[in-house]
Protein backbone atom coordinates (compact mmCIF):
# COMPACT_ATOMS: atom_id res chain seq x y z
CA UNK A 1 0.00 0.00 0.00
CA UNK A 2 2.87 2.43 0.75
CA UNK A 3 5.44 1.37 -1.88
CA UNK A 4 7.41 4.38 -3.19
CA UNK A 5 6.43 6.44 -0.16
CA UNK A 6 8.92 7.65 2.44
CA UNK A 7 8.06 7.79 6.13
CA UNK A 8 10.13 9.77 8.60
CA UNK A 9 9.47 8.85 12.22
CA UNK A 10 11.08 10.93 14.96
CA UNK A 11 12.24 9.03 18.04
CA UNK A 12 12.05 5.69 16.24
CA UNK A 13 15.00 3.82 17.75
CA UNK A 14 12.74 2.52 20.54
CA UNK A 15 9.19 1.92 21.74
CA UNK A 16 6.19 3.32 19.90
CA UNK A 17 8.22 5.04 17.15
CA UNK A 18 9.98 1.81 16.23
CA UNK A 19 6.62 -0.05 16.28
CA UNK A 20 5.13 2.51 13.87
CA UNK A 21 8.25 2.41 11.65
CA UNK A 22 7.98 -1.38 11.37
CA UNK A 23 4.25 -1.27 10.57
CA UNK A 24 4.79 1.33 7.81
CA UNK A 25 7.77 -0.63 6.44
CA UNK A 26 5.59 -3.78 6.26
CA UNK A 27 3.35 -1.73 3.91
CA UNK A 28 6.38 -1.00 1.70
CA UNK A 29 7.33 2.52 2.85
CA UNK A 30 10.99 3.49 2.91
CA UNK A 31 11.94 4.63 6.39
CA UNK A 32 13.99 7.45 7.91
CA UNK A 33 14.78 6.58 11.52
CA UNK A 34 15.73 9.12 14.19
CA UNK A 35 16.53 8.92 17.88
CA UNK A 36 19.28 7.97 20.30
CA UNK A 37 20.73 4.73 21.67
CA UNK A 38 21.16 1.58 19.58
CA UNK A 39 20.88 2.48 15.88
CA UNK A 40 22.13 -0.68 14.15
CA UNK A 41 19.49 -2.99 15.71
CA UNK A 42 16.47 -0.93 14.57
CA UNK A 43 18.10 -0.29 11.17
CA UNK A 44 18.59 -3.98 10.44
CA UNK A 45 15.08 -4.84 11.72
CA UNK A 46 13.61 -2.39 9.18
CA UNK A 47 15.97 -3.45 6.37
CA UNK A 48 14.91 -7.08 6.89
CA UNK A 49 11.38 -6.01 5.87
CA UNK A 50 12.72 -5.33 2.35
CA UNK A 51 12.58 -1.52 2.28
CA UNK A 52 15.23 1.20 2.17
CA UNK A 53 16.22 2.57 5.56
CA UNK A 54 18.21 5.66 6.51
CA UNK A 55 19.02 7.25 9.85
CA UNK A 56 19.51 10.83 11.00
CA UNK A 57 20.51 11.58 14.59
CA UNK A 58 18.97 15.07 14.90
CA UNK A 59 18.28 16.18 18.45
CA UNK A 60 14.58 17.14 18.44
CA UNK A 61 15.24 19.97 20.87
CA UNK A 62 17.31 21.80 18.21
CA UNK A 63 15.60 23.51 15.26
CA UNK A 64 18.82 23.64 13.20
CA UNK A 65 19.33 19.85 13.53
CA UNK A 66 15.69 19.23 12.59
CA UNK A 67 16.19 21.39 9.48
CA UNK A 68 19.24 19.32 8.59
CA UNK A 69 17.27 16.06 9.06
CA UNK A 70 14.44 17.21 6.79
CA UNK A 71 16.97 18.25 4.08
CA UNK A 72 18.67 14.86 4.48
CA UNK A 73 15.37 12.96 4.00
CA UNK A 74 14.55 15.00 0.89
CA UNK A 75 17.99 14.46 -0.63
CA UNK A 76 17.92 10.71 0.13
CA UNK A 77 14.33 9.92 -0.95
CA UNK A 78 12.97 12.99 -2.80
CA UNK A 79 10.58 14.04 -0.05
CA UNK A 80 8.91 12.98 3.21
CA UNK A 81 5.44 11.64 2.33
CA UNK A 82 4.56 10.43 5.82
CA UNK A 83 5.74 12.36 8.86
CA UNK A 84 5.29 10.78 12.28
CA UNK A 85 6.07 13.17 15.12
CA UNK A 86 6.75 10.75 17.93
CA UNK A 87 9.90 11.71 19.87
CA UNK A 88 9.06 12.45 23.47
CA UNK A 89 10.37 12.49 27.01
CA UNK A 90 8.75 12.63 30.43
CA UNK A 91 9.55 14.16 33.81
CA UNK A 92 7.41 13.82 36.91
CA UNK A 93 7.34 16.52 39.62
CA UNK A 94 4.88 18.99 41.14
CA UNK A 95 4.65 22.36 39.38
CA UNK A 96 6.50 24.23 42.14
CA UNK A 97 9.33 21.67 42.09
CA UNK A 98 9.49 21.22 38.31
CA UNK A 99 13.07 21.84 37.07
CA UNK A 100 13.03 24.70 34.56
CA UNK A 101 15.42 22.90 32.21
CA UNK A 102 13.09 19.82 32.16
CA UNK A 103 10.09 22.06 31.34
CA UNK A 104 12.00 23.62 28.44
CA UNK A 105 13.26 20.26 27.14
CA UNK A 106 9.79 18.68 27.22
CA UNK A 107 8.15 21.61 25.42
CA UNK A 108 10.95 21.59 22.80
CA UNK A 109 11.02 17.82 22.17
CA UNK A 110 7.34 16.90 22.66
CA UNK A 111 5.80 19.98 21.00
CA UNK A 112 8.03 22.46 19.16
CA UNK A 113 9.83 19.72 17.20
CA UNK A 114 6.50 18.82 15.55
CA UNK A 115 6.00 22.44 14.50
CA UNK A 116 9.44 22.43 12.87
CA UNK A 117 9.09 19.09 11.05
CA UNK A 118 5.56 19.97 9.92
CA UNK A 119 6.46 23.40 8.54
CA UNK A 120 9.40 21.85 6.68
CA UNK A 121 7.52 18.81 5.31
CA UNK A 122 4.35 20.58 4.17
CA UNK A 123 5.53 22.40 1.01
CA UNK A 124 6.55 19.14 -0.77
CA UNK A 125 3.41 17.36 0.48
CA UNK A 126 1.23 20.16 -0.90
CA UNK A 127 3.09 20.02 -4.22
CA UNK A 128 2.47 16.25 -4.44
CA UNK A 129 -1.10 16.74 -3.18
CA UNK A 130 -0.56 13.76 -0.88
CA UNK A 131 0.83 13.52 2.62
CA UNK A 132 0.18 12.12 6.04
CA UNK A 133 1.18 13.82 9.27
CA UNK A 134 0.65 11.70 12.36
CA UNK A 135 1.33 13.25 15.74
CA UNK A 136 1.88 10.84 18.62
CA UNK A 137 0.18 12.78 21.39
CA UNK A 138 -1.18 10.91 24.44
CA UNK A 139 -4.27 10.57 26.58
CA UNK A 140 -2.47 13.46 28.28
CA UNK A 141 -3.40 15.52 25.22
CA UNK A 142 -7.04 15.07 26.31
CA UNK A 143 -6.96 14.83 30.12
CA UNK A 144 -4.43 15.61 32.82
CA UNK A 145 -2.56 13.77 35.57
CA UNK A 146 -0.87 15.38 38.55
CA UNK A 147 2.89 15.96 38.44
CA UNK A 148 3.07 16.00 34.62
CA UNK A 149 2.64 19.73 33.92
CA UNK A 150 5.11 20.04 31.04
CA UNK A 151 4.06 16.76 29.43
CA UNK A 152 0.32 17.52 29.66
CA UNK A 153 0.87 21.07 28.37
CA UNK A 154 2.96 19.79 25.44
CA UNK A 155 0.49 17.01 24.58
CA UNK A 156 -2.54 19.34 24.72
CA UNK A 157 -0.47 21.66 22.52
CA UNK A 158 0.24 18.99 19.92
CA UNK A 159 -3.47 18.09 19.75
CA UNK A 160 -4.10 21.79 19.00
CA UNK A 161 -1.34 21.85 16.38
CA UNK A 162 -2.89 18.74 14.80
CA UNK A 163 -6.26 20.48 14.43
CA UNK A 164 -4.77 23.66 12.93
CA UNK A 165 -2.64 21.68 10.46
CA UNK A 166 -5.70 19.60 9.50
CA UNK A 167 -7.74 22.75 8.83
CA UNK A 168 -5.02 24.41 6.77
CA UNK A 169 -4.63 21.26 4.62
CA UNK A 170 -8.33 20.31 4.52
CA UNK A 171 -8.85 21.09 0.80
CA UNK A 172 -5.75 19.04 -0.16
CA UNK A 173 -4.63 15.41 -0.17
CA UNK A 174 -2.60 16.02 2.97
CA UNK A 175 -4.11 14.91 6.29
CA UNK A 176 -3.01 15.45 9.86
CA UNK A 177 -4.22 13.42 12.83
CA UNK A 178 -3.09 12.56 16.35
CA UNK A 179 -2.80 9.26 18.16
CA UNK A 180 -3.43 9.32 21.91
CA UNK A 181 -2.10 6.18 23.61
CA UNK A 182 -2.76 5.26 27.22
CA UNK A 183 -0.07 3.21 28.98
CA UNK A 184 2.36 1.48 26.59
CA UNK A 185 5.12 -0.59 28.21
CA UNK A 186 8.14 1.17 26.68
CA UNK A 187 11.32 2.43 28.41
CA UNK A 188 9.49 5.74 29.04
CA UNK A 189 6.82 3.97 31.11
CA UNK A 190 9.10 1.34 32.64
CA UNK A 191 10.82 4.23 34.49
CA UNK A 192 7.43 5.12 36.03
CA UNK A 193 6.82 1.45 36.92
CA UNK A 194 10.25 1.37 38.59
CA UNK A 195 9.45 4.55 40.55
CA UNK A 196 6.11 3.08 41.68
CA UNK A 197 7.79 -0.21 42.70
CA UNK A 198 10.41 1.68 44.72
CA UNK A 199 7.91 4.05 46.36
CA UNK A 200 5.44 1.32 47.38
CA UNK A 201 7.91 -1.54 47.93
CA UNK A 202 6.31 -3.64 45.18
CA UNK A 203 7.55 -6.16 42.62
CA UNK A 204 7.76 -5.07 38.98
CA UNK A 205 4.58 -7.05 38.14
CA UNK A 206 2.58 -5.62 41.06
CA UNK A 207 3.75 -2.08 40.26
CA UNK A 208 2.47 -2.53 36.66
CA UNK A 209 -0.92 -3.61 38.03
CA UNK A 210 -1.10 -0.54 40.28
CA UNK A 211 -0.18 1.74 37.37
CA UNK A 212 -2.83 0.19 35.09
CA UNK A 213 -5.43 0.05 37.87
CA UNK A 214 -5.16 3.80 38.46
CA UNK A 215 -6.08 4.70 34.87
CA UNK A 216 -6.95 1.85 32.48
CA UNK A 217 -10.17 -0.11 32.98
CA UNK A 218 -8.94 -2.75 30.48
CA UNK A 219 -5.95 -3.49 32.78
CA UNK A 220 -3.91 -3.98 29.59
CA UNK A 221 -1.03 -2.04 28.07
CA UNK A 222 -1.55 -0.83 24.50
CA UNK A 223 1.26 -2.20 22.29
CA UNK A 224 3.54 -0.46 19.74
CA UNK A 225 2.22 -3.01 17.19
CA UNK A 226 -1.40 -1.89 17.76
CA UNK A 227 -0.39 1.76 17.45
CA UNK A 228 1.52 0.90 14.26
CA UNK A 229 -1.66 -0.51 12.73
CA UNK A 230 -3.56 2.70 13.60
CA UNK A 231 -0.84 4.69 11.82
CA UNK A 232 -1.23 2.37 8.79
CA UNK A 233 -4.97 3.10 8.79
CA UNK A 234 -4.32 6.87 8.82
CA UNK A 235 -2.11 6.33 5.74
CA UNK A 236 -4.73 4.26 3.89
CA UNK A 237 -7.18 5.56 1.25
CA UNK A 238 -10.03 4.82 3.70
CA UNK A 239 -8.66 7.59 5.91
CA UNK A 240 -8.58 10.25 3.14
CA UNK A 241 -11.20 12.28 4.96
CA UNK A 242 -10.12 11.64 8.53
CA UNK A 243 -8.81 15.07 9.47
CA UNK A 244 -7.81 16.60 12.78
CA UNK A 245 -8.87 13.74 15.05
CA UNK A 246 -7.19 12.86 18.33
CA UNK A 247 -7.78 9.11 18.44
CA UNK A 248 -7.24 7.50 21.78
CA UNK A 249 -6.13 3.87 22.11
CA UNK A 250 -6.19 3.74 25.87
CA UNK A 251 -8.11 0.80 27.36
CA UNK A 252 -10.97 3.11 28.34
CA UNK A 253 -8.84 5.70 30.21
CA UNK A 254 -10.60 8.75 28.72
CA UNK A 255 -14.06 7.15 28.62
CA UNK A 256 -14.35 7.38 32.41
P1 LIG B 1 10.74 5.67 24.36
O1 LIG B 1 11.53 6.28 25.47
O2 LIG B 1 10.71 4.19 24.19
O3 LIG B 1 11.17 6.29 22.96
C1 LIG B 1 11.40 7.64 22.79
C2 LIG B 1 12.16 7.85 21.51
O4 LIG B 1 12.45 9.25 21.37
C3 LIG B 1 13.53 7.13 21.48
O5 LIG B 1 13.80 6.70 20.18
C4 LIG B 1 14.49 8.23 21.90
O6 LIG B 1 15.82 8.02 21.46
C5 LIG B 1 13.85 9.41 21.20
N1 LIG B 1 14.26 10.71 21.74
C6 LIG B 1 14.22 11.14 23.01
N2 LIG B 1 14.71 12.39 23.07
C7 LIG B 1 15.03 12.74 21.81
C8 LIG B 1 15.59 13.91 21.23
N3 LIG B 1 15.92 14.99 21.96
N4 LIG B 1 15.79 13.92 19.89
C9 LIG B 1 15.49 12.83 19.13
N5 LIG B 1 14.97 11.71 19.63
C10 LIG B 1 14.75 11.67 20.95
O7 LIG B 1 9.27 6.29 24.55
P2 LIG B 1 7.84 5.86 23.97
O8 LIG B 1 7.03 5.44 25.13
O9 LIG B 1 7.95 4.98 22.79
O10 LIG B 1 7.31 7.29 23.56
C11 LIG B 1 7.14 7.71 22.22
C12 LIG B 1 6.08 8.78 22.17
O11 LIG B 1 4.84 8.22 22.62
C13 LIG B 1 6.36 9.98 23.07
O12 LIG B 1 5.96 11.17 22.40
C14 LIG B 1 5.47 9.72 24.26
O13 LIG B 1 5.11 10.92 24.91
C15 LIG B 1 4.29 9.06 23.60
N6 LIG B 1 3.44 8.29 24.51
C16 LIG B 1 3.94 7.23 25.20
C17 LIG B 1 3.10 6.52 26.04
C18 LIG B 1 3.57 5.34 26.82
O14 LIG B 1 2.79 4.84 27.65
N7 LIG B 1 4.76 4.82 26.60
C19 LIG B 1 1.77 6.91 26.18
C20 LIG B 1 1.31 7.98 25.46
C21 LIG B 1 2.15 8.67 24.62
Order of helices and strands: EHEHEHEHEHEHHHE
Order of the strands making up the biggest sheet: 3-2-1-4-5-6-7
Q: What percentage of the residues does DSSP assign to strands (E)?
A: 5-15%
Helix-strand makeup class: alpha/beta
Q: Write down the CATH class of the largest domain.
A: Alpha Beta
Distance between the termini: 36 Å
CATH topology of the largest domain, which one? Rossmann fold
Summarize the structure.
With 256 residues, this protein is an alpha/beta fold. The protein has eight helices and seven strands. The site of nicotinamide-adenine-dinucleotide has 29 residues, from helix 1, helix 4 and helix 6.
If you had to describe this structure to a student in words, what would you say it looks like?
Strands 3-2-1-4-5-6-7 form a seven-stranded parallel beta sheet, with helices on both faces. With 256 residues, it is an alpha/beta fold. The chain has eight helices and seven strands. Helix content is 48%, strand content 14%. The longest helix is centred in the middle third of the chain and has 29 residues, at 100-128. The chain folds into two domains: 6-182 and 223-249, NAD(P)-binding Rossmann-like Domain (Rossmann fold, 3-Layer(aba) Sandwich); 184-221, no CATH class. The termini are far apart. The model has no long low-confidence stretch (mean pLDDT 98). The radius of gyration is 18 Å and the shape is globular. The chain has helices at 15-26, 40-47, 63-77, 100-128, 149-169, 187-200, 204-215, 224-235, and strands at 6-9, 30-34, 53-56, 82-85, 131-136, 174-181, 246-249. Residues 11-17, 34-37, 59-61, 86-89, 109-110, 136, 138, 181, 183-184, 186-189 line the site of nicotinamide-adenine-dinucleotide.
